Amino acid sequence: MEITEIKSQLSISTILHYYGLKPDKSAKMCCPFHEDKTPSMQVYYKTQTVYCFSSNCKTHGKSIDVIDFIMHKESVGGQPINKHQAIKKAEEILNPSSGKKEIGREQFLTNMFTYFRNAINNSKPAKEYLKKRGLDFTRLEIGYNSAQFHHGERKTEELLKQALEVGLLQDKGLINSRTGEKGYSPFAKWCICFALRNQKNEVTGLYFRSILNGDKAKHYYLKNRSGIYPGYPKSDTKKLILTEAIIDCASLLQIKEIRDNYSLISCFGTNGLTEEILNSIKSLGNLEEIIFYFDNDKAGKTAVEKYSNEFKTYNPKFKISFVELPNNDVNETLQLHNEEIFLDLLKKRKDLFFSNEVESLDTQSIKKEQSAESEQSTAEPKAEPKTVTDFLEQKELLKSLNQLIEKAGIIGEEQSRLLLFLITISYLNKSPLHGIVQGSSGSGKTHIISRIADLMPQEDVLRFTRITESSLYNWGEFDLFQKIIIIEDLDGLKEDALYALREFISNQVLRSSVTIKDKKGNNKSSHKVVKGQFSSLSATTKGELYEDNMNRSFIVAINESEEQTEKIISYQNRRNAGEIDKNTQEKAIGFIQKLVRGLKHYEVVNPYATQIQLPNNVKNKRRLNEMFQAIIKQITLIHQFQRQVAPAGNYLITEIEDIENAVEILFESIILKIDELDGSLRQFFEKLKKAFKEESFTRFDAMEVTGFKKTQLQFYLNDLVRLEYLKQIGFANKGFRYKISYNDNIQKVRKDLKEAFTKQIKELKQHKK
C-alpha cells in the first residue's frame, strides 16, 4: 500500500486505540515517548497528527502523523524503526487477516483508565470533590468519568463493542433524535474512578464513586468484578493494612511514610473481604501483622471481629491489631485533621487478643493481660486480680484503684488523688478535663501532679516548667492532640501565656495570624491552627490570681494538716529504711498504665442529670455543673465493665452509684468553689480561729500556731486583712496586732451541703425502687 492510501484509511484515533492510549475530552494525553506526568501531547483529529509540547521529548518540534507515530512507538533499542517497517505495521493494523492486534479486557480497561486519569485534569467539579475529600490526584491514580469517551473523534466501532462488553456502555435501545444514530447509556456517569488490579498488575476492574451529593447510588462496580485495590501486596510484605473502603485506602496511600512501610489493601465494605483478597494475603510468606483501619461504628467493629478470627484460624502466628479512629472513618478523619495524625494513630494501635470463644472487640481491646503471671499479681491490691479486666470488674473499683495509686507512691490525699486521676485520664475524650492544685510553697503540690502523670502512658505526657507567651501557638496542628500537659509552676506564666492556655482549655483550638516567607523569600501572612484535645494539671501558690483559669478547672487544695505531714514523713522514713519495695511500686505504676491504655472511650448518658442540683451559693454555677457532670461521666467510664451498654452499643448508662461517688470525690472541690478563700488560705485561717477565737495576736503568735515562715505568713495575713476576715490593730513601728473580725462558719456550710446531696441521692434511690 502507498503511504497516501494508508493515511487515508488509518486514522490517528485507531492508532492511539491500538496502543492503548486515550486522549481526554480536550484531545490531550500524556506523551508515550518520554516521562510525562501532566499531558503534554495534543491530538489534532482534523490533520490526523499529534504534537508534543515538551522540550524533553525526542519528537518535540515536529508534527507526528500515523506513520511517524508507529515508527517511534515500535522502536528497537531506543531507536525508531524505519519507514518501510512502519508501513508494514500499518498494513497489519488495517488488515485483521494480516495479524491485527486484538485488545483483551485487561488492556481495554487499562486504556480506559488512562483516559479517565487524563480527563480529571479538565474537570473542575471532579477536582473540587477530591479536594473536599482530602485526596490529591497528583499523588494517586484517580480518574474521572464524564461519560464523553464514546463521542466525537474518539468514537470507533471497536470502542463501542468493547465498552458494551465490559459494561461501560449499556444498550437501552436509545436513538439520537437529531442524527438518527443508535445511542448508548454510559455507566457510572460523573464519578471518580479507581482501578482494581490482578497479580500481574493489570487492570481487571473499575470502581466508581459519584461526586453528586444527591446521587442515591453512590458506588458502582463494573460487571464481572475482579482485582484488588490498589493492587496485590508485595511478596515480602511484613505489615499489611486493611481498610473498609477504597477511598479510605486511597487516603492512607498518599502518605509516603505509610506507603513506604506498609502494604495496603481495601476491602469492598464490611462484607467485602473477597476470596481473591484472602488468597493474596495467605500467599504472603513473610507476613507478621495485619492492621485493621475500619470504620469506627458497630458494623466496622463486627467486621473486624469476624475477619480477625478468620485470619487467626488460618495462621495463629499472625499479630492482629486495629486502629481506633477519632472520627467515623479514615477519609473523614483526613478531612478534619492533618495526615500526621494517621502515623500517630498507627503508633497507638491496639492488639487483638483471642480466647477459645469469640469475644467482642470492645472486650478484647481492654484485655491486655491474659496470662496469670505470678509476678504481676503483686501490683494489685487485696484480691490481687490477675488482669486489667479482673481489676475493672471489682465491686468496689474506686476503692481498689485508690489503694493501687497509694502503692504507686502517692501518700494520703485520698479524694484529691482520685479526682486528679479521673481528670487526667479524660485526655482521650472529646471534652477533656483540667485541674489546678493549690497549696503553699513546699506543700507538695508539684509532687502530686508529677506522680499522677507517672501513672499515665508516658508517650502521651508533656511536662513543662514554664510556658512562654507564644509557645502554645507554635506547636504543630495535632502535636497536642490526645495529650496530657503538666505545668509544674503556673505562677511562672505571664498573662499572655495564661490567656493562650485559657483559650486552649475553653475552645480546644488556637488560631493565629503569622508571617511566613514564600518560596521566593517574600513575607506573606498565613493562618496557623493548633488543636488541643488535652487534659492538664497545674500547680500554683496563688489561686486567687488565676480566677479565670480556675473557673475552667477543678480546684484541688493540698492537705497541709499535721496529720498529712506525719503520713508523708512516715513514708519517707520507711522508704529510706528499705521497708518500701521499689519493685512493688514500679509494678503498680505499670499496671495502672496498662489500665489507662486499655480503657475504651464511650459516650455516656446520665438519666439522672436533671434530678440532682448543685447549691445556689456556688460561684460560676453553670460551669461547675458542667464539670460535675463530666466527673460523673468519668466515673461511669471507668466502670465500663460494670455498666449497661445501650442497645446501639456506643454509649454507657450512668447509675446512681456513679453520682454518689462523684459527690464524694468532688465534695472538697465544690467547697472551694463556694468558699471565698482558696485552699491554703482557708486552712491557715481555720488554725487562727481555733487558736485565738476572741483574742488578739501578733504575727509571731500566728507563726508559732501555723508553722509558716515570715514571708508566706505575712502574705496570708495581708490577704485576710484585705478580705476583712482579720482586723489589723496598732501601728507598723510598734508592730501590728490582729483580731478575727469575721468568724464564718465553714463547717456549717460543709454540713448543709453534705446533707443536701445526701437527701437528693436518697430520693433518687427511692424513686428508682
How would you characterize the largest beta sheet?
5 strands, mixed
The percent range for helix content is 40-55%
- Major sheet: order of its strands? 11-10-12-13-14
Number of helices: 28
Please give the alpha-carbon distance between the first and last residues.
101 Å
Mean of all residue-level pLDDT scores: 82
Radius of gyration: 36 Å
Topology (SSEs and partners):
Elements: H1 3-9, H2 12-18, E1 28-29, E2 41-44, E3 49-52, H3 66-73, H4 83-94, H5 105-119, H6 124-132, E4 143-145, H7 157-166, E5 169-175, E6 182-186, E7 191-197, E8 203-210, E9 219-221, E10 239-243, H8 246-253, H9 256-261, E11 263-266, H10 275-282, E12 289-293, H11 298-314, E13 319-322, H12 330-336, H13 340-347, E14 350-351, H14 361-364, H15 388-392, H16 397-407, H17 414-424, E15 434-438, H18 445-454, E16 461-464, E17 483-487, H19 495-507, E18 509-517, E19 523-531, E20 534-540, H20 547-551, E21 554-557, H21 562-576, H22 582-598, E22 603-605, H23 621-638, E23 651-653, H24 656-674, H25 679-692, H26 699-706, H27 710-722, E24 726-729, E25 737-740, H28 746-768
Parallel strand pairs: 10-11, 10-12, 12-13, 15-20, 15-21, 16-17, 17-20, 22-23
Antiparallel strand pairs: 1-2, 2-3, 4-7, 5-6, 7-8, 8-9, 13-14, 18-19, 24-25
Give a brief outline of the structure.
The chain is an alpha/beta fold and 769 residues long.
What does this structure look like?
Strand 24 and strand 25 (737-740) form a beta hairpin. 37% of the residues are buried. The chain contains 28 helices and 25 strands. By secondary structure, it is of the alpha/beta class. A 5-stranded mixed β-sheet has the order 11-10-12-13-14. Residues 96-101 and 355-383 have low confidence and may be disordered.
